[in-house]
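Dear Dr. K.,

Following up on our conversation at the group meeting, I've run the structure prediction for Calponin-homology (CH) domain-containing protein from Kryptolebias marmoratus. I'm pasting the input sequence below exactly as I used it, so you can double-check it against your construct before we proceed with anything downstream. Let me know if the numbering doesn't match what you have in your notebook.
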Amino acid sequence: TFPSKTSSSCSPRILNQEAVQKRTFTKWINSHLAKCVPPLEVRDLFEDIKDGVILLALLEVLSGQKLPCEQGKKLKRIHWVANIGTALKFLEGRKIKLVNINSTDIVDGRPSIVLGLVWTIILYFQIEELTSSLPELQASSSSTSSVDSSNSSTDTTSPPVKRKPLPPLQGGARKALLRWVQQTATKCLGLEVKDFGPSWRSGLAFFAVINALRPNLVDMERVWRRPNRENLQEAFLLAEKELGIPQLLDPEDVDVDKPDEKSVMTYVAQFLRHHPDRKQSDSEGRQEEEVTWFNFSEQRKSLRELKMWLDQLEREAAQAQETEANLAQQYQLFKSLHVQVEMRRKQVEGALQSTQRDGMLTVDQALVKQAWERVSNRLVDWHLQLDRSLPAPLDTVGAWLHEAEGALRHEIIVQQAHDITANTVHRALEQHKDVLKSLESHQQVFQRIHKDRSVDGVPVPPDQLQDMAERMNFVSTSSSIHLARMEYLENKHHMQAFLTLAESKLKSWIIKYGRQESVELMLNNYVSFVEKQHFFEKYEVMFQSLKRSAEAYVSVDSSVDEGEMGVRRFMREVVTQWRSLSMEVRSVRSMLEEVLSNWERYTSTVASLQAWLEDAEEVLNQPENVKREFFRNLSHWMDQHAAMNDAGNFLIETCDETVSLDLKQQLLLLNGRWRDLFLQVKQYAHSDELEKWRKDHLKALWALKELLDTAEAKLNAPVQVSFLSVRAFLQDVEVTIFSIFIS
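The predicted structure tokens came back this morning:
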């Protein structure tokens, strides 16, 4: 289980653990990315993983499969989320359980979530894959469902084919790896290794593993007496040089009180590629095949005995049903056979559990299933016949009980499409409501008859009457739970259908784009789906309906809120999924509008620039004054040229390969023409501005001269000597000087 996404203060040890894992996981990733062509490298794990390109490249190397990937220097967040989503769906498709890991958390570079995702990948593609090949793990797996030891459903003569065990769970992988280290390396040296933490601090355990694989490489007597750091450094270097195992760990990260277990496991698992136990796998495999064949033969024998018993029971039921006897005797015969069936029910259900990888039943299992269904149906029909043989109105109550029990037993087959399942549940729910609405009236009739033990003086078989009382009580107590469950399931599948459709639409909107017309169609589709159909309002209505039905279901049956399939757990998952989905859907419109804006800017600038270039190329042969006049607004066309390239480069990064190639070729031609022209006319680039500056300069000079002439005239004018006239003269001079500075 990975760290919760709720924020909390981190202790220094947790922060240090994150740093160690970051370094180790980065080195592990880079050791695999080196196989890419060209090689890739992670420098900052939390940053480099955000766009999903590195993550998809890693999964391609590990799986050998080609995965779709949005690439380019100008990818937006919406494309990053799409890449991460592709990676997560690939992992989920391999039945890898992802806990608390969402696309947006990886795009945001949340350390704990990123490390959790990488650890999941390491665990599945390295640790579980390698430990699953260990003979001791195979032996332990054979006692569980991990090994597929059953034959195909059509083969009845030859032994089953041995198949590779399924990868064990994390706990099993850890135990298997630790057991391998203990049994092959440390036990014989008297070295106690009981974990993947402190036991490795001294470096001795690493040397023990190397010594077990290549005995001549290590002088164990010498390493016992050396300091931890020295041992660790030499062990890592030796493993890399002699075994080709990359140095994922730093000595200072291991020589601590509590080394990070995940980092140590990641490193140690690499040694499994060199373990000698594979030499023994063939002989042990043959022994396992013999055991498997023995188990298979025993299973077939058991199934055939079960089939014979069911066939005999069916014959006895048919004979008993035809026996001439009164109702009480007939019911006793029915009940004795019914008890036998119920006593063997668990055995039959266990025998019908498919052990095949494809989930199909073997021929023997299919025959047992058919026989079981025949017997069950015969007993149900016989039971209904006996209830209808009761005196009226008890016969009507009996027939209704069968109908109500059938409704309560009804199981909805979950279709691949959630909307189909939701509609199926809705129809069944309406039918069951119609059946169960008459519960109270039938209860009243039955209670009166049950009290008298007879119908109008006609006695009723006591066992049959008592069984009907128990059945009536079961229907009464179960009906509210059943209806609440059905309403919850209907709302649940409606919500899942809605979210699935929304994710499908989102995926169609965050692809590499096409030409302007296709983007316009995409935007229209977005507006139609999101705005005209009130996408966000519709979710809110559906969520509130789901919430009410979930609360009602939990209130009548609290047990449904437990375990992996718990109701409240599902509600939390819906909220989490919607939070991410709604944010991405909201961002789609702005992205589409930005793409359209760039298309419009690109097409308009290309058209105008092409026309201008044709005129400009002709003007080059004209006299100087004509060229100067034509190119006086060259700076404007420089801006248009830059705008064309900005829009074009944006479209090249966000459009599909075909469109991008056309854009590149068009820009290449236009930029070539522009470059050839500009080299000849660049001197005119600022002619308009120079002319404006010249005029402004002349205007400023004229204004300054006028002010100076005015000031000189005032200074040369005679002034009468008096206090008032002198003060007025000084004020006039100050105003003139101030005007000069302002100008």
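Two things stood out to me. The chain has five domains: 12-132, 194-274, 292-389, 516-684, 686-742. The first strand starts at residue 454 and ends at 455.

Best regards,
J.T.
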